[in-house]
Write a structure and sequence with these properties.
globular, mainly alpha, 2 strands, single chain, 221 residues
Length: 221
Amino acid sequence: MHIPDGFLDPWVLAGCFVLAAAAIGFSSWRLNGRLDDARVPLLGVVSAGIFAAQMLNWPIPGGTSAHFVGGAFAAILLGPYLGCLAMASVVVVQAFVFGDGGVLALGANLLNMAVVDVFVGYALFRALVGLGETIAAFVAGWGAITVSAAAVGLQAGLSSTFAYDLATTLTVMTAGHAVLGLVEGLITVLVVRYLLDVRPDLVLGLTGPNTGGDRPEEATV
């Protein structure tokens, strides 16, 4: 999922950077004045947890590996705007400190993991939560990572510097992550289900998005 430098054309990098900056800036604006002493530590804990979870890789055929991304989980737990900022902090640290994803490709990686993964996951969760939190969390985790992978395939396929055409990159990335996404969905539902059982007050995504992730007792749905 992390795109290294040298895989995308400059115009694709620029476009992704603009879109990612706009979405992250909008999320920051929506949260202006809403972050209190209770939410800031939660933001840090969720970001650190996702960062650690992304370090755990499982091997897949072909000599590469996959890992939990966590955008849908962040959105369900924190709401879409705070979830976007949490994922953005993870992706930025990974790029500048650990070299996981290129610095020049940072805009693309932010767009895919901190924007598309988060907002698609949140939209799916909210659309399906009437069927039950378990179903909604699983589909959110699976669907968000699959759409994010399609975005990566689109960016790579549109870039002349990448060796494969658009049809190939879209097919490989989407189909591959539609299968790998089953693990993402399973992990998402297990963690969300556990938190709903022991600390439902921490699952801020159960409320509407207009509050930017307010706690259930103080939100307007």
